[in-house]
Design a protein that fits this description.
Two copies of one chain form a homodimer. The first copy, chain A, is elongated, with a radius of gyration of 20 Å. Chain A contains nine helices and no strands. Chains A and B meet through α8 and α9 of A and α8 and α9 of B.
Chain lengths: ~200, ~200
Amino acid sequence: MQDRAQVRIKARINKREAVLRTAAQVFNEKGYLASTLDEVAERLNVTKPTLYYYVKNKEEILFECVRIGLTMLQEAIHDVGVSGGSAADKLTAAMRKYTEIVTMDFGMCVIRVGEDPLPAESQQKLRRIKAAIDLEFRELIAQGIAEGSVKPCDPKIAAFTIAGAISWVARWYQPNGDLSVDTIADQCIHFLSTGLYQPVTP
Amino acid sequence: MQDRAQVRIKARINKREAVLRTAAQVFNEKGYLASTLDEVAERLNVTKPTLYYYVKNKEEILFECVRIGLTMLQEAIHDVGVSGGSAADKLTAAMRKYTEIVTMDFGMCVIRVGEDPLPAESQQKLRRIKAAIDLEFRELIAQGIAEGSVKPCDPKIAAFTIAGAISWVARWYQPNGDLSVDTIADQCIHFLSTGLYQPVTP
C-alpha cells in the first residue's frame, strides 16, 4: 500500500503535467506571445494562483514544454538506434516516430514555438538536446550509406532535409482535419524515401 | 533630368529598405523578442528618432520584412510557372529559387520569425500570401503527375514536404559557414527529387 505522502507527490506530478500540456495546447493554437496563463487556468477550471502552485511562470512552462518534447524525440531516436535491424529500417522507424511526436502537444510546441522566446541560458540547454538528436540522425544516415541502403550524400544536409520536412508537419497538421497522422507519416516517409520524380528509364 | 522631389522620394525608399533589411538581419540573428530598435539604429549608425522617420514601430517593421520575403517567394514561383518547359523543370527551378530566397535577409525572416508575433489582422494578410504560394506549388505538382514526371502522390502533402525541407534551410544555414547556398540547393533538390534510399533492384 502506498503511503499518503507518495500519493500526494504522484498527484502533484500528474497535475503539473496537466498544466504543462494545457499550456502547450494554448501556445500551439495561439502562439506564445498571445497566450495567457489566465486562459490556461480557465481551460483547467482552476484559479490562476492554483497554477502557480505547480509552475513558476510562463517562461518556465515553455522551457518545460519544449524540454519534454525534445526528450520524447531523443528517447524515440535512441530506442530506434539500439533496436535490431538494418540502418534503413531504423531510419524509417525514426521518421515515423518523429512524425508522431511532432503532432502531439509537447512535440508540436518544439516546432510551433520552440526555444526562441526564452533567455539565452535556457535556449542553450534546449539546443544541446537538439544537437544530440541531429547527431543520432546523421549517424543513422552514415550507417545507411555504409550498408548500401542509403544513397551517397552529405549526412548533415540529408538529416536537416528530413528533419525540416517532418518538423513542418507540426505547422500544418490539423488535429481535426481530413488527414490522419498515419496517412501523413506514410506519405511523407514514402516521399522522402523515394523522391518526387519518376525514375528516368534509359 | 529627375526633379528634386523625385530624387528625395527615391532616397527615402532606399533608406527605408535599408532600415527594414538591417532589422531583418537583427531579427534573424537574435529572434524578434530579443531584438531592439536601438540595435537597428546603431548598426545603421543613425539615431533612433531617425528610424521613426522611415518606420512606425517594431511590429510594422516585422510585417514589412515578412511581406517582402513572401512577395519574393510568390514572384519567383509565379515567374517559374509562366516560364516554358515541363512541370518537372518548373518544379526544380522553383525549389532552387525558394532555397535561394530563404537564405536571404527577408526570406530568412519569413521562416525564422514569421507572422506569429503580429496582431491577428496582419497575420491573416501574410497567411493569404502563404496560401497562394502553397497553391502554386500544389498546381505544379499536379501538372507533374499529369505529365508523368512526378510520382502519383497527394499534392498537398508533397508540397508541404518540399516547403518544409527547404524552409528548414533558413534555420540551419550559416552565411559564413562551410556550405554555400549553391551546394545546399544542389543536394537538397537532389534528395527531394530522388529520395534517401537506393532503389531496390528486383
